[in-house]
Automatic annotation (TrEMBL):
The UniProt record lists the keyword Hydrolase: no
Protein's UniProt name: Serine/threonine specific protein phosphatases domain-containing protein
Keywords from the UniProt entry: Manganese, Metal-binding
Pfam family, one: Metallophos
Domain Serine/threonine specific protein phosphatases as annotated: residue spans: 160-492
Cofactor dependence: Mn(2+)
């Protein structure tokens, strides 16, 4: 017996997976999980035991205990999180240099459990979706099924069940992987509509589909990349890239030839974590449990690696998300077959070593420039810009007439296009005979997300519509898209705070525009008001409003009495302006200190001005000052 015990003592000791100083999460049989530091590692009878130390006490437990989970050291976590989130300060292109390291760091963080975190519990698919899920898996999804998905995504309901969304993504991947890398699309009997960057702005997709019509065999849609990342303001839906993808994939599965997606630089799984909570990864992780989010991120990553890179429309127009590859600039052997020959899965490269990497990188990252030739790009890194001579030469060699791309907000090349949804580049100086009807240049930038990232009155959105007679561009304002989005929701609670500002339903963007430009509106009204009685004929009032705020369709609002105080064909513009005011909402004194500080600064400014009563009132509020002046004149 003793000999046997000695033999066991001489057996190789169990290898301990922990080191002194490492951090672990320890969940005792009774009590909550605790974050501990390994203080000692001992071996007894071939068994490894570790000593744990935390603020709550100390323990000695076997290394194989089920209550132990290894975690990253705090300094390692800090390094990883800086790698994932701190890259935003760098240029977008530079971030690609770190994509492989970023991916490893992301995977490490995803595999790390937080102390006391709740274990993910798979959520069952609700009964109304069970039939749809069976249709997807069986390959029998109908147009009505797709419409039910879009309706659910656009009316403000909770995110789709993970099982359903996974089924959509995986079925969509199997469809797009058989499409050519270079799509060749012809205009159907109806129209072909091209959308630029949407970046999670669901409101714009809802508005366009409600205005133009839903995808069908006679109405084909092409999304030119950058559905992922960023998002809109909370009132206008916030981050809704998942809902856009679900709607697009639903129609794609039901009718594959009615909708297409080309790849943008944001359709890149290594790029999503860079934006933290505002990125596509952040959106998924905010809406689903940890295990569900992991599955969805992997599925969407695989889907994006299968997407086509470009399209040719009607054998006239080349559609790319970014721009022309640098290897095409001075290469007489260039051909569209360069794109067709690319193999899947297709990853966006970190560098441009080689012709194939240049094709992929520049097709998703390049931008136009005014100067001829190739030049550096403000995005930094490996990104390039291409000039009008490159565009003209490439289009001529391919027998095409227009380059349509997206990738950036309009207005970088010309002040004329600031705030617009499109921008023309590379005017045709030699009057190319093949210039497409309706084109005003050889290169067109298209951006569909209006009021980008929630910036009110920021920019309009646009889409390009091809039909039998050529093409035309249609723009829309952010408030129009918001109106369509809010209308699509089955139940939208009314905000009481907005009820203090106006009567009846009115788009928030219109209210904010009137408040912000109130004094300019007043100046226009008073200049047109000869008798100074605060009244203007409806046509004059409408003309004044249009000069100050041309983006608002006043002709559609004049019949709304809650907006326009109209009586006997005249508008009381003073009543119209005083209706919209900025006020503090009472939230248990939340703004009291700020209110007092602002009043103190205002009072100090009045004393420093040392003006008369009339002058003081004019300084404080031109509307109130004009009211006193008008009454004094009447007396």
């Amino acid at each position: 017996m003793v000999a046997n015990k000695r033999l066991r003592l001489q057996e190789p000791a169990e290898e301990c997976p922990y080191e002194v100083g490492s951090r672990v999460v320890f969940t005792p049989p009774r009590g909550p999980a605790r974050l501990c530091t390994v203080s000692s590692v001992t071996s007894d009878l071939g068994r490894c035991h570790i000593g744990l130390q935390s603020e709550e006490g100390s323990w000695c437990v076997p290394s194989c205990s089920s209550g132990l989970k290894k975690v990253l050291l705090p300094q390692d976590k800090a390094v990883l999180r800086r790698l994932l989130q701190g890259l935003e300060a760098k240029s977008e292109s530079d971030a690609l240099r770190f994509s492989s390291k970023q991916r490893k760091a992301f995977e490490a963080l995803r595999g790390t459990e937080r102390p006391g975190s709740k274990q993910a519990v798979p959520r069952p698919v609700p009964t109304p979706w069970s039939t749809l899920l069976s249709h997807i898996t069986a390959g029998t999804m109908t147009w009505e099924d797709a419409h039910s998905v879009f309706q659910s995504c656009s009316n403000g309901e909770n995110p789709l069940p993970c099982s359903l969304l996974l089924a959509l993504v995986r079925a969509g991947k199997e469809l797009v992987r058989w499409e050519p890398m270079l799509l060749r699309l012809s205009v159907p009997a109806g129209r072909l509509v091209i959308l630029g960057d949407t970046h999670g702005h669901l409101k714009d997709v809802v508005h366009i589909w409600k205005t133009e019509g839903l995808p069908s065999k006679d109405l084909v849609y092409l999304f030119n990349g950058d559905i992922c990342d960023r998002g809109d303001s909370e009132r206008r839906g916030g981050q809704r890239a998942l809902q856009i993808w679900a709607s697009v994939l639903a129609y794609k599965i039901a009718a594959p030839e009615c909708i297409y997606v080309t790849r943008g630089n944001h359709e890149d799984r290594d790029y999503w974590p860079q934006y933290g909570a505002t990125g596509f990864s952040g959106e998924i992780e905010a809406k689903y449990d940890r295990s569900e989010a992991d599955d969805l991120l992997d599925a969407f990553g695989e889907l994006c690696d299968q997407l086509p890179l470009a399209a040719v429309v009607q054998e006239q127009c080349l559609v790319l998300h970014g721009g022309l590859p640098r290897c095409w600039a001075d290469d007489p052997s260039r051909s569209l077959q360069d794109l067709e020959a690319l193999e899947r899965p297709l990853c966006i490269p970190e560098n441009v070593d080689g012709r194939q990497k240049q094709l992929i990188y520049d097709a998703t990252w390049a931008d136009p420039q005014k100067e001829n030739g190739l030049g550096p790009n403000d995005r930094g890194g490996e990104a390039i810009s291409f000039g009008p001579d490159v565009t003209c030469s490439v289009l001529k060699s391919f027998g095409l007439q227009l380059l349509l791309r997206s990738h950036e907000l309009p207005g970088r090349g010309s002040e004329e296009f600031k705030g617009r949804g499109f921008e023309w580049w590379h005017a045709c100086e030699d009057e190319m005979e093949v210039l497409l009807k309706g084109a005003k240049g050889l290169c067109l930038s298209l951006f569909t997300a209006s009021d980008y990232c929630g910036c009110l009155e920021g920019n309009s959105g646009a889409r390009v519509i091809f039909d039998g007679d050529g093409f035309h561009i249609v723009e829309h304002q952010g408030w129009e898209a918001e109106h369509a989005f809010l209308q699509s929701q089955t139940e939208k609670p009314f905000d009481p705070a907005e009820g203090m500002l106006f009567e009846g339903p009115l788009e928030r963007s219109v209210i904010e525009a009137v408040v912000e430009r109130k004094h300019e509106l007043l100046a226009e009204f008073m200049a047109s008001d000869a008798p100074k009685d605060w009244l203007l004929p409806l046509e004059s009032w409408q003309a004044c409003c249009h000069r100050v705020l041309p983006q608002i369709p006043w002709q559609d609002l004049v019949n709304n009495k809650s907006i326009v105080p109209l009586r006997s064909g005249q508008v009381n513009y003073m009543l119209f302006l005083t209706r919209y005011q900025v006020r503090f909402s009472h939230k248990q004194g939340l703004h009291a200190s700020f209110h007092r500080r602002m009043a103190s600064q205002l009072f100090a400014g009045v004393l420093e001005a040392d003006a008369t009563l009339r002058g003081t009132l004019e300084l404080l509020d031109p509307i109130l000052g004009s009211e006193i002046r008008t009454r004094a004149d009447k007396k």
